[in-house]
Amino acid sequence: MTKKSFYILILISALFTSCIPVKDLWYLQDKNNSGEQNTVSAVESKPYRLQVNDVLSVNIKAIDPKLVSIFNTTESTTTGKSESALYFDGFTVDDHGNIRMPILGEINVIGYTLEEVRLMIEKKLLEEYFKSEANVFVTVKLAGFRYTINGEVGSTGTKTLFQAHVNVLEAVANAGDITTVGNRKAVMIIRQTPTGVQMNEIDLTDVNVMKSPYYYLQPNDYIYVKPLRQKTWGTGQTGIQSIGTIITLLSLATTVYLIIKN
pLDDT digits over 97-114, tens only? Predict the structure, then answer.
């Protein structure tokens, strides 16, 4: 084998091993190669059960707003609140699992769903303060859907979305998408539950990820996107970058060789 053939072989080998294949960047692929349009039924997300440090937004309404004004916080009737306003005006679940509301006092909400807490507050109001004719209307929501994302994404950190349900693809998009060197086949979801911490890896390149119980996030989930091996190699993410890197290295090696020889 000539030197020329040897160098060409090295160039081709490095090119194929360092480039990132398109199939590693493509979300929700049908890996069964059926060629037919399939309907994938996503797993229904289970109702979230409240945990310590959750912040609730509770709004109580009635036919006569003056009757319930004392039960509401100062900003409870405003719209378009900022995240900080919701934090300070909301009700935080303390270490004992309680929230402390005006007049109603402490209410234990740990382990309950939002709907269960709503019914609990509504029942307490009707039994102790109002008659059914008052038409008391209670709304209980989380003060934003919070999650944390780290690793190979455009924007890391704790994010807040003001919607009831969030899937992992929405969370990734909200964080600026996974970078070219992020491993879409091994996205780690870390979830805190009343019984302990759960960890699971999901493959976002497979359409069947929508069947995973981790496809729909729960508040306070932590997402970690691992890097691909190509990032540590440093040879480039595309064919052009890889060729440029290899040519630079070969030029440097040739220059060093000539200097030493002379």
Answer: 999 998 899 999 999 999
